[in-house]
Amino acid sequence: MIEMKVAGIAIDAISHSPIVLLRDGTDRRALPIWIGEAEARAIVAALDPKPTPRPMTHDLCLTMLETLGAEVERIVVHDLRNSTFFATVVLRHEEEKIEIDARPSDAIALALRAKCPIWVMEEVVLEASVPVDRDADEAERRAFREFLAGVKPGDFRKHDSPQANEG
Questions:
Q1: How far apart are CA 27 and CA 134, in angstroms?
Q2: Label partner for 117 (CA 20 to 30 A): which of 11, 86, 107, 164?
Q3: Are 43 and 6 in contact (CB under 8 A)?
Q4: One digit per residue, pLDDT tens: the chain, 167 residues?
Q5: Vertex 133 angle, CA 8 and 74, to 5°
Q6: pTM assigned to the model
Q7: Domain ranges of the chain
Q8: 3-state class of 82 per DSSP?
Q9: Which CATH class name applies to 2-148?
Q10: How, if at all, do strands 118-120 and 96-102 pair?
């Protein structure tokens, strides 16, 4: 799994739908997840917390969980099927771990309020993420090609074996 952070909300230029952007810790990959307008507002509200006159839905959910003695431990975006992402909210109640199916947008809005980590399965990141820093990716590929060009078969011998010391 790869821990990711919310980079922000964007708007799809074609569909005008909101997109939540998750970024990995190196800021090299972004995972765009198309979401609804209400969920986008909930995520924006959590990113820039300002007091509201009444609890919003995700605030209410978090308050209910905390009142019942449960803690939001983490969320996990674990699958992508037919262009739909799937997530789980992982709760801890006393000694019990409880996993609850959730839409990623709701899980992310809750995670931001609970200040808990957002994890994404590596397979999902590989399938749906986009590179953020193409220059860094190209520099890494170029450095690896240069490394491979200088590798000789003898470089793979064990240096502590008797054969390594033979001519």
A1: 11
A2: 11
A3: yes
A4: 999 999 999 998 898 899 999 999 888 889 999 999 999 999 999 998 788 888 899 999 999 999 999 999 999 999 999 999 999 999 999 999 999 999 999 999 999 999 999 999 999 999 998 887 655 556 656 666 676 677 666 555 555 544 444 44
A5: 45
A6: 0.77
A7: 2-148
A8: coil
A9: alpha beta
A10: unpaired
